[in-house]
Amino acid sequence: MQTRFVVSIPTLDTHPVIADWYPALTRDGEPSPHLVIMCHGFKGYRRWGFIPLVALRLQDEGFGALVMDFSHNGRVPEDGQARLSLDATFVAPALFRNNTIARELDDLSAVIAWVRGAGPSALGIPVNPRIALWGHSRGGLVAAVKALEDPSIAALATWSALAHPQHYTERQKKLWRDRGELVFTDYATGTSLALGLELLEDMEKNRDRYAVGERAEELTTPHLVVHGEHDPTVPVAQSYTFYDTPTIKADKKLLRLLTGHTYGYDDGRIASEALENATRATVEWFDSYLRGSATDG
Description:
Rossmann fold; disordered C terminus; alpha/beta
């Protein structure tokens, strides 16, 4: 069986989701019916940092992993071609500029619908697979919104997730409105990027919908919350909001804090104690709530 291969998944328009598929087998050697859809964060992509390491670990543990590139993340070419090789280059900054949380939710919905429709044939998996979501940073927010709105999601794991997207200052938002965009430089690549007004308008219009920390008591999907105590990018307090909310599903919620690491789970590209602890907790969570009492043989 291939370690991974690339698939193109149609969305609402001409811009597809490109994804890496990591197929997995049950203990009996049959295609696994348990699938994890993985969502990268803001400025991320499907092979960012530790994401492939986590996907490989899930695959080794018998969970198929479908790792998305959101269609407007700026890494997918405007022609939508699926490239076998992928680096950190922003090849479509105009798409990145027009990206919104609503668009990413539409992308995720399209992927889930595809998995339940064409997915079994395209991916070689059983019909009606059990689906879990994993998300990092803003991808965690997107995954949480989807889990809140789709009760068929079997399990959820978020790493360093945003409890809400409203982290821009009033001064930034004024400049954003005045100039029609918010310009910044991506520190990793040195690329000049911009956020269009569509994102600001989307966040303001859907403020209540995207406040997933405040909505945590509504969530019935088992939720693993992973965060570093010294995260300089997304404060750990945001993950506390998911956990410190009264819920009748309290027995299906776990907060796992990691000491002495940052947003990237150390440098994010090599094995580390923090990454191992986060990954092991995630595997155990999906073993309990995605695979559950089902037998693999």
